[in-house]
Amino acid sequence: MKIKKKLLFTLLALACCLLITTPVLAQSPTPQPDNPPTYTGDKVVVGNTFRLQSGESLLGNLVVIGGTANIEAGATITGDVVLTGGTITLSGKLDGNLVAIGGAITLADGAVVNGDIVTVGASLKKSGSATVNGQITEQTPSMDLNDHPVWQFPWQSKQNLLASFLTATFEAFAMAAFAVVVGLILPRQTHNLSAAIQEEPLISGAVGLLAVIGSPILLVILVITLILIPVAVLYVILFGLALAFGWIGLGNFVGEKLSHAAKGNWAPAVSAGIGTLLISMLIGAINLIPCVGWIIGAILSLVGLGAIVITKFGSTSASAGKTPPPAAVPQTTSLPPVPPASQQSNGTDKE
């Protein structure tokens, strides 16, 4: 039980740290003027490759999300390593704990881990000459659907806290993968959604609330007619896609803000994927709060749904139907009237 609590707190801290450290994803740890070099600071690797060569040291934590890390023999990490959906090969020394959610861990010959190793749905390959001076805990999420009822209100869930967080994490990665695909196929529509959320968040939320209230009434009318039952089924499918697309629009909004903060120019697929992953993990962690944790996610979903309606699934911009304000006409100072030439000549003759 202590290991589960420790793992849960580690994962919650990771989700919060990701939101704090994401604007500096493009930066590397600060190298110190040592020979061999020593890097000070945490390292976050998102979908990329990190290599710590022999003789090098990292004084900080290492977080690998969907990437690859290779710690060569003779290299040292003084800190914890968190792996999510990636691979890590350790041939050197780790003075800290190793936590992996999905992915693969390889402890090669001569590897030394002075800490615990906790894996959840991840594979662990340990060489016979590798040393782990701590506990190795391997857990697999339960897939038994008979343990819990199919439908539960948020405050009635009796699911294990750790299992709930792991489920939310897996869902966040699945949603992020879907967001990457949407960002590749529909970059302009995704940007229009983010722009609508930024320009009119309150209106988007109000429109989303009206859509949620009116949908059951519309479905009842369609079902009563019998002939329009296929239309009702199609509407339910479109409504689900609208909720998913609106959530991706929220994620892309977060990703674009992070891109500007990092002074980069991320592709729409990258912005949508990273933003959706971060916001999904954060809301998934907040949903663990009993009774009221689901409220923030519901409000954000309404905002995304309203942006879908306003932009017509992102096909138009939120400001497309607005009339631009009239341009200001520059005011000119009026000059006194000039008398006719004849009057000027007469006045000259009199003089």
Descriptive report:
The chain has 351 residues and is α/β, with parallel strands linked by helices. It has helices at residues 2-21, 161-185, 187-199, 201-224, 229-261, 268-286, 294-311, 341-350; strands at 30-32, 38-40, 43-46, 49-52, 57-59, 62-65, 68-71, 76-78, 81-84, 87-90, 93-95, 98-101, 104-107, 112-113, 117-120, 123-126, 131-132, 136-139. It has 2 domains: 2-139, no CATH class; 159-311, no CATH class. 46% of the residues lie in helices and 18% in strands. A hairpin with a 5-residue loop joins strand 1 and strand 2.
Categorize the overall geometry. elongated
SSE sequence, one letter per element: HEEEEEEEEEEEEEEEEEEHHHHHHH
Q: State the share of residues found in helices, binned by percent.
A: 40-55%
Mean pLDDT reading: 77
Distance between the termini: 114 Å
Task: Note the topology.
Layout: H1 2-21, E1 30-32, E2 38-40, E3 43-46, E4 49-52, E5 57-59, E6 62-65, E7 68-71, E8 76-78, E9 81-84, E10 87-90, E11 93-95, E12 98-101, E13 104-107, E14 112-113, E15 117-120, E16 123-126, E17 131-132, E18 136-139, H2 161-185, H3 187-199, H4 201-224, H5 229-261, H6 268-286, H7 294-311, H8 341-350
Parallel strand pairs: 2-5, 3-6, 4-7, 5-8, 6-9, 7-10, 8-11, 9-12, 10-13, 11-14, 12-15, 13-16, 14-17, 15-18
Antiparallel strand pairs: 1-2
